[in-house]
Write a structure and sequence with these properties.
The complex is a heterodimer of chains A (272) and B (219).
Chain A (H helix, E strand, L loop, with lengths): L9 H5 L2 H5 L2 E12 L2 E12 L3 E5 L6 H5 L12 E9 L2 E2 L7 H7 E4 L10 H11 L5 H14 L3 H4 L12 H14 L4 E5 L7 H14 L4 E5 L3 H7 L2 E6 L2 E7 H6 L4 H7 L5
Parallel strand pairs in A: 3-8, 3-9, 6-7, 7-8
Antiparallel strand pairs in A: 1-2, 1-4, 4-5, 9-10
Helix pairs in contact in A: 5-6, 5-8, 6-8, 8-9
Chain B lengths: L2 H33 L2 H29 L5 H34 L10 H22 L2 H7 L2 H22 L4 H33 L12
Classes of the chains: A alpha/beta (272), B mainly alpha (219).
């Protein structure tokens, strides 16, 4: 009788095969970012896989949000920022001269810490991006508004008041509206910068559940200060410290058996 | 159901899968003994391998789930799952022991008709089934009812020991066979102990009360 071959590492027992075999989508090669003469990111190399959730963790000021913003060139908007190295999405260098930044941001959506709906109706918040990108057909827009709100698990709560102001929604609803707005233009990647940190625990659960649903269609990169949130929603976790990527691995590995002492100290709350 | 809850549900399913392999291992081991079926006895090891593998899976899943900061019932479910997995793994080991001894016994003429051993096996497996049923349905009354039944299995084990001791005294050529049967009896008695442990874990899981080591009356 053949004995069952046991995996050498317990993490292998709990890692869905799809996570290991997912294709790479985002690649950073030796990325350095300077604010003036101060180096905020130090030679970062990372490969992020598609249709998974990758969490960036680390103490404040470690560069995780700065790094996240490299992927849709949000840092371009800040004066005195200089980036070296390469950021590739689907093999294309997004800092190449011929890259249309508007098109890039269509491919790479973003959700911020504070929900920032436009001071318009719920409907118009979602329709805005579509109209901006040239969609005129009302029924097409209606369809996307509904599918995006459904995708963001908000439809049932707002379907009867689509034309009321988005500012009348609760904080958690506003954040889900921002997610609906981001997915309406069908990006490949959604960057999330602490999307639940301003929300109460129940609204946080909804956002986390939503993220786990969204990863079926989108690649998600999320910055979070909440360790448990990273364990609950992410497949891979990257730990940053003072501008360096200290450790990057499967989330189960980072939180149960990290390779570096510094990572363990951080995830167990000993510093940061 | 949240994703986390579905992960917990999957954990429960894994334990039930372990339990079904454990049940089949014990049933096959006893059937192999009674029917003197060596092929069946050898199959028991296959179930045991699966149980061992599942135990590792359960433990790995539990460690990952614990890292997600579960609270209250969820926390108790995960810690209980690790203990139940260990008990089920031991049940698999006991079944393997029974199967090995059956292989030895089938080399020699049968010492006596097997009556008490299948009865003990039935009692122990009913205890385990009830404990797991209680686990699935959150039925702590059913779990509590399992606990005193352990004494009945202990009693049968002692009775069989006495009977086998008299065989050995009367006829020393039976000693080897008697020792095998004693080992099998002890294995069944241990399975009942594991079932009792599972029942106690189920009470802890659903009532947050530790009823171990209190004696039958206090439980």
């Amino acid at each position: 009788m053949a004995a069952i071959t046991l995996p050498a590492n317990p993490v292998d027992l709990v890692t869905p095969p799809g996570v290991l075999s997912a294709a790479p989508l985002i690649e950073a090669k030796n990325v350095e970012l300077f604010y003036g003469s101060s180096r905020a990111l130090k030679g970062i190399d990372i490969t992020i896989k598609e249709k998974l959730v990758t969490a960036f963790i680390g103490p404040s000021g470690c560069g995780k949000s700065t790094f996240l913003r490299c992927f849709n060139r949000m840092n371009d908007l800040i004066d005195n920022v200089r980036i070296t190295g390469q950021c590739l999405i689907g093999g294309e260098d997004i800092y190449a001269k011929d890259v249309d930044v508007i098109e890039l941001r269509k491919r790479v959506g973003m959700v911020f810490q504070r929900s920032n709906p436009f001071p318009k109706s719920i409907y118009d918040n979602i329709a805005y991006g579509l109209r901006l990108h040239g969609t005129k057909d009302k029924s097409a827009i209606d369809g996307v508004v509904e599918s995006s709100l459904r995708g963001a698990a908000l439809w049932d709560e707002v379907k009867d008041r689509l034309h009321s102001s988005a500012l009348g929604l609760s904080g958690g609803q506003q954040q889900r509206l921002c997610i609906a707005r981001a997915i309406a233009i069908r990006p490949e990647i959604i960057l999330m910068d602490e999307p639940a940190s301003a929300l109460d625990p129940l609204a946080t659960v909804k956002i986390e559940e939503l993220i786990l649903e969204l990863k079926k269609e989108f690649t998600i990169v999320i910055v979070t200060h909440n360790m448990q949130q990273a364990t609950r929603i992410s497949d891979y976790t990257a730990f940053f410290y003072i501008g360096e990527l200290i450790e990057y691995d499967l989330t189960t590995k980072i939180f149960t058996n990290p390779a570096k002492k510094q990572t363990e100290d951080y995830v167990t709350g000993r510093f940061g | 159901m949240t994703h986390f809850e579905s992960e917990l549900a999957a954990l429960k399913q894994k334990l039930l899968l372990m339990a079904s392999h454990a049940e089949s291992a014990v049933n096959n081991a006893i059937k192999a003994l009674v029917d003197r079926d060596d092929d069946l006895a050898r199959k028991v090891a296959e179930d045991d391998d699966k149980i061992d593998h599942l135990e590792q899976e359960v433990d790995a899943a539990c460690i990952t789930l614990l890292a997600k900061a579960p609270l209250a019932t969820q926390l108790r479910l995960i810690t209980s799952a690790m203990k139940i997995a260990r008990d089920l793994e031991r049940v698999g080991d006991e079944a393997t022991t029974i199967a090995r001894r059956s292989l030895e016994l089938s080399q020699e003429p049968q010492l006596k008709a097997y009556v008490d051993i299948p009865r003990m096996a039935t009692m122990a497996m009913e205890m385990l089934n009830d404990a797991l049923g209680a686990f699935v349905n959150g039925d702590t009354a059913r779990a509590r009812a399992v606990i005193p039944r352990d004494k009945d299995v202990d009693q049968l084990n002692k009775q069989l020991y006495r009977e086998l001791a008299s065989f050995m005294i009367e006829k020393p050529t039976t000693i080897t066979r008697c020792l095998h049967l004693m080992t099998i009896s002890k294995a069944l008695e241990r399975i009942a102990d594991h079932a009792k442990n599972v029942a106690e874990d189920v009470v802890f899981l659903y009532e947050a009360r530790d009823i171990r080591h209190l004696g039958a009356t206090a439980a």
